C-alpha cells in the first residue's frame, strides 16, 4: 500500500468512525451536508419528481444511520459511496413497488423502450448512474466549499466559464480585461483542484 493509499485509508476510517458514533451530531451533520444532494441527484436520475426525491433522501439518510455500523471499509470490496448508492437504490425500488400497488394503471412506470421501471434500474444501472453523478457532483461541491473565499468578480468569471462563455465574452460582460479573466480562472483552479482531490479522498 502506497503512502497516499495509507493516508486515504486512515482518513476514510476516521470519517466512518465518527459517523458510526450516534452521539456525534457534528459528524452526522457533515454526512448530511456532503451526501444529501448526491442522493437527491441519483433519485432524480431514476425518474422521481422533486418531492418524491426529497422523501427518498430522508429515507436513505435514516437507513444509513441505522445500517452504517454494518459497513466496514475494505478497499478490495468497494468504496463507501458504492454502499450508499445500493442503500439508495433499494429504497427507490421499494418506492416504485409501493407506488405500483397503489395504482391500477402502471403505464407511468414504463420507460421509453417499454420496460418496467424496476427492470431498468438493476444494480449495475444504479451504480452507473451513481458514478456519473459523482463525477459531476464532487467538482460542484468543491466549488461551493471554496467559492466564498473569492471576490465577486472572480466568482462570476468562473461561473461564466462553467456556462460556456469565452474569455472575450466574459471580459466584455464583466467590464474587465481578458488578462484579468485568465488570472481569476487560474487562481480558482489552483484552489479548486486540491479541494476536489480532498473530497474524493474523504468521501470515497
Number of domains: 2
Q: N-to-C SSE series? A: HHHHHHHHH
Share in helix: over 70%
User: Could you tell me the mean pLDDT?
Assistant: 79
Record field, number of beta strands: 0
Q: Which term fits the overall shape?
A: globular
CATH topology of the largest domain: Rna Polymerase Sigma Factor, Chain: A
CATH-defined architecture of the largest domain: Orthogonal Bundle
Q: Could you give a short account of the major beta sheet?
A: none
Low-confidence stretches: 1-12
CATH class of the largest domain: Mainly Alpha
Report the CATH superfamily of the largest domain.
RNA polymerase sigma factor, region 2, helix turn helix motif
Number of helices: 9
Description of the molecule:
- This protein is mostly helical.
- It folds into 2 domains: 3-135, RNA polymerase sigma factor, region 2, helix turn helix motif (Rna Polymerase Sigma Factor, Chain: A), CATH 1.10.1740; 150-204, Arc Repressor Mutant, subunit A (Orthogonal Bundle), CATH 1.10.10.
- The protein has 9 helices and no strands.
- α2 crosses α6.
- It is globular.
